Amino acid sequence: MRSLPWWKEAVIYQIYPRSFYDSNGDGEGDLPGITSKLDYVQQLGVDAIWLSPFYTSPNKDGGYDVADPRNVDPRFGNLDDVKALIHRAHELHLKVLADIVPNHFSDQHEWFQAALLAAPGSAERARFHFYNAHADGTPPNNWISLFGGPSWTQVADGQFYLHLFDSSQPDLNWDNADVKEDFEKTLRFWLDLGVDGFRIDVAHGLVKEDILENHHDPQGLSNALRLDYPMEPEKRNELLLTVPYFDRQGVHEIYRDWRKIFDSYGDREIMAVAEAWVHPPINATKYVRADELHQVFNFDLLTAPFEAAHLFEVINRSLELNATVDALPTWALSNHDSPRVASRIGDEASRALSLFVLALPGSNYIFAGQELGLPDGELHDSDRQDPSFVRSGGLVKGRDGARIPLPWSGDSTPFGFTAGTPWLPISQSWQSHTVEKQFKDSASLLNLFRAALALRRQYLLASQEITWIESPIHGSKDGSILAFTRGAFTVVMNVSDQSKEFNIAGEILLASSGDFQVSVGKKLLPARSCIWISN
Ligand code: NOJ
User: Fold this and answer.
1) What confidence tens digit (pLDDT) does each residue in 235-263 have?
2) Ligand 1 centroid vs 337 CA: distance in angstroms?
3) Which residue minimizes the CA distance to atom 2 of ligand 1?
4) How far apart are CA 248 and CA 151, in angstroms?
5) Residue 149: which domain range?
6) Fewest Cβ atoms closer than 10 Å to its Cβ: which of 65, 124, 349, 519?
7) Considering its fold, how many domains does the chain have in total?
8) What is the DSSP string of 298-325?
9) Taking 90 as the threshold, does the pLDDT of residue 143 lie above it?
10) pLDDT digits over 324-373, tens only?
């Protein structure tokens, strides 16, 4: 097999620290809790973990409001706990990615506190985007925050500061030398502590242009950026091409500088993945040019309907676009910002799609709990903590449903997650989803994931090409089957609601549904299912 950098086709397991495992009974997950469960992670067969933020934070946006990027929030532990986690992960041959948040700080960061005390025009304010109000007292422009409401907040002396997210998350000014220097220091800090790379939050947002200009349709733009908001695709595409604060040329200069830092760590093969929602899709490939970052998230499958033509189009497009810069795509079906895939497309379809996607060339990002088939948790509004729920006046339900803590063991909630009261309630209906139960059940999704990851590692990675044999434009064009070959395997998925006959020779190695039937000369692929066949 060709020797590739570790990250090239890695399977990366996303851990939301607050929801993974609570070691001290305070109802919230923590770093020692994660360390104690790394054996479980290793037994899944993944290559790396990505830790969502655990830095000092008032936690107004689940830790993406960072008050000290080089320290640990006491709710999660301390720096020694990070060292212990990295040490144990490396013993288990797991790489560790930290989540870096360069678009904004928390308003509790000492820089912002100093900026509030300093005068307009001061060096302290220059690290953020402070501007005077218009003569009529209105904010410098009409942009709407991604969490709803104006993206400007006024301070006591009348100036406004920009925040693309919550008012507690002031945007940093990347034209300011202090900002650049401080982030380089942060990168080196975590790399020197042993992390193997970074997930870069809002990687496309750092550089703003034309800050004093109004957008012609701020509400439309805000709706277009909300994936749960129904809109004609043409209208959405048109608006997304006009976002004034995303994907400016200047961001690439920042990543070129960061790449030099990563490469200076030599054979440690440091990698970084960009969270970059950009439009049109070809623009995403710029982030993975040879002298920039290593991977860029591909969000298509977080929203794609379970439908052959659509899935074929987005998968194929991603493979083709990445090939133009000699990169491989990344795939994700769930993360901490989106509805869990099992809730979005249903249990059977999500099992099938998981198996299908694990066979594709590129990296897979698996959000903890996805391997257990967790749905979104049911919550009362009074439980919700997401700022998008609060800022939209409850109009947007927010992302808490995907962030419910993991069920580990036992028959009653909170299923071993904590000895205390979990920070979000865990439904009793998750009884059958626990790690403990699924480990014992050979037909569980957990064991399907484990088997798929083992086969993937052993056989699939030898080849990075796929050949479509059935799709809306290849093969029988049945409209409900997607199939491709990759190296030693053929992967077939039936997206329809009926079982389908198929006549592909070879031994069935894995099936997302136990109901497939094989009798002489006739094979039936159940509705919403996927199989891996050895050629
Ligand atoms: C993207 C993160 O994934 C999300 O959770 C956060 O709210 C925003 N960036 C702002 O940091």
Assistant:
1) 999 999 999 999 999 999 999 999 999 99
2) 7
3) 201
4) 18
5) 110-162
6) 519
7) 3
8) --HHHH--S-HHHHHHHHHHHHHHHHTT
9) yes
10) 999 999 999 999 999 999 999 999 999 999 999 999 999 999 999 999 99
Same domain flag for 140 and 207: no
Q: What pairs with residue 142 in β-bridges?
A: none
Q: Output the six-digit token pair for 156.
A: 């006591």
Interval between CA 387 and ligand 1 midpoint (Å): 11
pLDDT-derived band at 519 (thresholds 50, 70, 90) equals low
Residue 215 CA neighbour count, 13 Å, CB half = 20
CB 489 within 8 A of CB 460: yes
Residues having CB closer than 6 A to ligand 1 are: 61-62, 64, 101, 165, 201-202, 275, 336-337
Ligand 1 mean position, distance from CA 62 (Å): 8
Name the closest-CA residue to atom 10, ligand 1.
64
Closest atom of ligand 1 relative to the 275 alpha carbon: 1
- Coil, strand or helix at 118: coil
Backbone CA torsion sign across 211, 217, 222, 226: negative
Q: For the domain that residue 138 is a member of, what is the CATH number?
A: 3.90.400.10
Question: What's the helix, strand, coil split of the chain in %, to 5?
Answer: 35, 15, 50
pLDDT category, 37, cuts 50, 70, 90? very high
Taking the centre of ligand 1 as the mean of its atom positions, its distance from the CA of residue 63, in whole angstroms, is 9
Ligand 1 atom, smallest distance to 65 CA: 11
Provide the percentage of residues in the chain whose pLDDT is more than 70: 98
Find out whether 325 and 287 touch, Cβ atoms under 8 Å. Answer: no
Q: Pocket of ligand 1, candidates 57, 337, 385, 392: which has the most ligand atoms within 8 Å of its Cβ, to mutate?
A: 337
- pLDDT tens for 369-419 read 999 999 998 899 999 999 989 888 898 889 999 999 999 999 999 999 999
Confidence at 205, pLDDT banded by 50, 70, 90: very high
List the Cα angle 466/334/453 in 5-degree steps: 50
* Ligand 1 nearest-atom number relative to CA 147: 7
Asked if residue 116 and residue 38 are part of one domain, the reply reads no
Against a cut of 0.85, is the pTM above it? yes
The CATH number of the domain where 401 resides is what?
3.20.20.80
**Active-site positions?**
201, 275
